[in-house]
Amino acid sequence: KDGKYVGSTIDGKEYQSLIKLLPEDDAAIANWGDDWCMPTKEQFMELYSSANTTSEWVTENGVMGCKFTSKKNGNTLFLPAGGFRHFRNINVENNGCYWSCMLDKNNTHRAYALSVYDGGTSCSASDRCDGRFIRPVRAKK
After folding, report:
1. I need a labelling partner for 98 at 20 to 30 A (CA). Which of 6, 26, 39, 127 fits?
2. Alpha-carbon distance 115 to 85, whole Å?
């Protein structure tokens, strides 16, 4: 409509106005149960904020990736650089991409993903047909 993607109705569900995946569409819930969920864009931004964590590109057990260390409690999180898929192109260079549960409100065929790579991190919208990893987080009850 007017050159913009406006979503659609599938199996009676309206996707046009969604900004977050429905629980039945959350891969973490589907695979791990409702004690888990895919992270939000805000959780990713909190993770890579220099106010909250330090990050470094490391190799752990022979696997390259980004290690985040909390400035508050010293806990660490390692996200492997497993690459990503964009259409038929598979990129397994020094990066890794992880889906959030948050949709682009202007283009619901896109969702936000965290990218980690040698030299930085970012969070941006990607086509939902692209291949990205899932890193579940505990659901807040």
Report:
1. 6
2. 13
Residues 103 and 21 sit within 8 Å (Cβ to Cβ): yes
Three-state DSSP at 114 gives strand
How far is residue 81 from each of residues 56, 78, 133, measured CA to CA in Å?
Answer: 12, 10, 10
pLDDT number for residue 13: 57
pTM passes above 0.85:
no
**pLDDT, tens only, 24-76:** 889 999 999 999 999 999 999 999 999 999 999 999 999 899 999 999 999 99
- Whole-number pLDDT of residue 43: 95
The terminus-to-terminus CA distance of the chain in angstroms comes to: 38
How far apart are alpha carbons 132 and 90 in whole angstroms? 11
Give the count of alpha carbons within 13 A of 117, CB side only.
14
Q: Taking Cα atoms as reference points, which of 103, 105, 50 lies closest to residue 113?
A: 103
